[in-house]
Amino acid sequence: MVTFSLELLAEVLPLLLYTVIGGLLTVVGAAAEYASLQHFGAGEATVALWLAAIGCVMLYAGVYGIGYQKLFSPTN
């Protein structure tokens, strides 16, 4: 019985970690995009473009890189 629960934990733990990391990257990426819009509205184009680029990378990593490739992998 103990081995069963350890095997189950070994299978579920990576999925939980990927879910948490992907969610965090997505939320922080969306926050960076929102901050980018705020800075662009305030006339700070350089900071706005930098935040927009960082936000795009984080959204891509969270949604596609981890969410689709790791959690919903089409090869599994």
User: What is the rounded distance between the termini?
Assistant: 27 Å
Number of strands: 0
Low-confidence stretches: none
Question: What amount of the residues lies in strands?
Answer: under 5%
| SSE order, one letter for each helix or strand | HH
Principal-axes shape call: elongated
Q: What's the tally of helices?
A: 2
Helical content band: over 70%
- CA-atom Rg in angstroms: 17 Å
Biggest β-sheet: count, sense, barrel? none
| Average of pLDDT | 91
Structural class: mainly alpha
Number of domains: 1
Q: What would your notes on this structure say?
A:
With 76 residues, the protein is mostly helical. It has one domain. The protein contains 2 helices and no strands. It has helices at residues 2-41, 45-71. The two termini are 27 Å apart. The mean pLDDT is 91. The chain crosses the membrane at residues 12-35, 47-67.
Secondary structure elements and pairings:
Blueprint (H helix, E strand, L loop, with lengths): L1 H40 L3 H27 L5
In short:
With 76 residues, the chain is mainly alpha-helical. It has helices at 2-41, 45-71. Helix 1 (2-41) packs antiparallel against helix 2 (45-71).
Task: Write a concise keyword list for the protein shown above.
single chain, 76 residues, mainly alpha, 2 helices, transmembrane helix, transmembrane, DUF8151 domain-containing protein, DUF8151
